[in-house]
TrEMBL record:
Belongs to the ABC transporter superfamily. InterPro entries: AAA+_ATPase (IPR003593), ABC_Ni/Peptide_Import (IPR050388), ABC_transporter-like_ATP-bd (IPR003439), ABC_transporter-like_CS (IPR017871), Oligopep_ABC_C (IPR013563), P-loop_NTPase (IPR027417). Gene3D superfamilies: P-loop containing nucleotide triphosphate hydrolases (3.40.50.300). Its main location: membrane. GO terms for molecular function: ATP binding; ATP hydrolysis activity. One of its GO terms (biological process) is transmembrane transport. It comes from Pseudooceanicola albus. PANTHER family: DIPEPTIDE TRANSPORT ATP-BINDING PROTEIN DPPD, OLIGOPEPTIDE TRANSPORT ATP-BINDING PROTEIN APPD. Residues 7-257 form the ABC transporter domain. GO terms for cellular component: plasma membrane. Keywords: ATP-binding, Cell membrane, Membrane, Nucleotide-binding, Transport. The keyword ATP-binding applies. It is found in: Cell inner membrane. This is ATP-binding cassette domain-containing protein.
């Protein structure tokens, strides 16, 4: 018997209404997430990853809006939830880690004040208990001298330290779902490894589900159970991480993998995906990746749907790579 998903997104559409017409940043997004599962959301800048995350948190501001679809969280549809309902969920059951930590931190308040208020906004506990939990969260993300740091202001931290504080705030309530928007971009590799290990333990021990938004395939390959690849506002390939990384079926996924520097590429030219992502105001007809795809065929003039591909994968492509010759996979 299949467990009921913690999160089920059906045909999500998010658009921004402009004077030139609607810009559909996210279209036809459908995905499921089980408790304790980690999903990597991967794609180039402008592919719609962050807008997807903001849509799932109810953080799309005018002129943007969620124009269609359902966001089923623990059985309840959040798509039309009023702001009061979102405030009860955010931070407690659903948390977001932003790429810029100053979207989380108030520059004029001490760290302990901000963390204590975050805890007490959802739980009726004493300030001393809330402070102890805040201290524990700072220790979890590798911040030294946590008692001293609790009494500091955000400007007294480096960029990487501020990001760790933002991550610690997201962990305070051990939420059911965390949406992380490239949270380790500003961190050195040692601290990044500590954070990744911590969130993996959190998901394993508490059943917290995680959506990790990134352009870094190396991080996803070692972190996520499944990966969804986005292009031009749509998911083009989705499946178990090991399968997608080792044997990509969509030419765009293949291009992302090939563009990653690796040990064998010393003194050789890095590969790249030719061309540019299309305008979301006037996307090309048919497959949106076709103008950049060297595997494009006349059939790609038709609009591809996201369909099952094998036992547990989905693919939006009319010319998948596994119908051509086998692709070389680099270590």
């Amino acid at each position: 018997m299949t467990a009921t998903p913690l999160l089920e997104v059906r045909d999500l559409r998010t658009q921004f209404d402009t004077r030139l017409g609607p810009v559909v940043a996210v279209e036809d997004i459908s995905l499921t997430l089980q408790r304790g599962e980690i999903l990597g959301l991967v794609g180039e800048s402008g592919s719609g990853k962050s807008v997807t995350g903001f849509s799932l948190m109810g953080l799309i501001d005018a002129p943007g809006r969620v124009a269609g679809g359902q966001i089923l969280f623990d059985g309840s549809d959040l798509a039309g939830l009023p702001e009061k309902g979102w405030r009860a969920l955010r931070g407690k059951r659903i948390a977001m880690i932003f790429q810029d930590p100053m979207m989380t931190l108030n520059p004029v308040l001490r760290i302990d004040t901000q963390m204590i208020e975050t805890v007490r906004a959802h739980e009726k506990i004493s300030r001393s208990e809330a402070r102890a939990r805040a201290r524990e969260a700072l220790v979890q993300v590798g911040i030294p001298a946590p008692d001293e740091r609790l009494e500091s202001y955000p400007h007294q931290f480096s960029g990487g330290m501020r990001q760790r504080v933002a991550i610690a705030i997201a962990l305070l309530h051990k939420p059911d779902l965390i949406i992380a928007d490239e949270p380790t971009t500003a961190l050195d590799v040692t601290i990044q490894a500590q954070i990744l290990a911590q969130v993996q333990r959190l998901c394993r021990d508490t059943g917290t589900a995680l959506i990790w938004i990134t352009h870094d395939l190396a991080v996803v390959s070692g972190l996520a159970d499944r990966v969804a690849v986005m292009y031009s506002g749509r998911i083009v390939e989705e499946g178990p991480t090991a399968q997608v990384i080792s044997h990509p079926a969509h030419p765009y996924t293949r291009g992302l993998i090939d563009s990653v520097p690796h040990g064998k590429a010393h003194q050789s030219r890095l590969q790249q995906i030719s061309g540019m992502a299309p305008s979301l105001l006037e996307p090309p007809p048919g497959c949106r990746f076709a103008p950049r795809c060297r595997h494009a065929r006349p059939a790609c003039d038709r609009e591809p749907a996201l369909l099952p591909h094998g036992a547990d994968r989905r693919l939006r492509c009319l010319a998948p790579l596994d119908q051509d010759q086998p692709q070389e996979v680099r270590a």
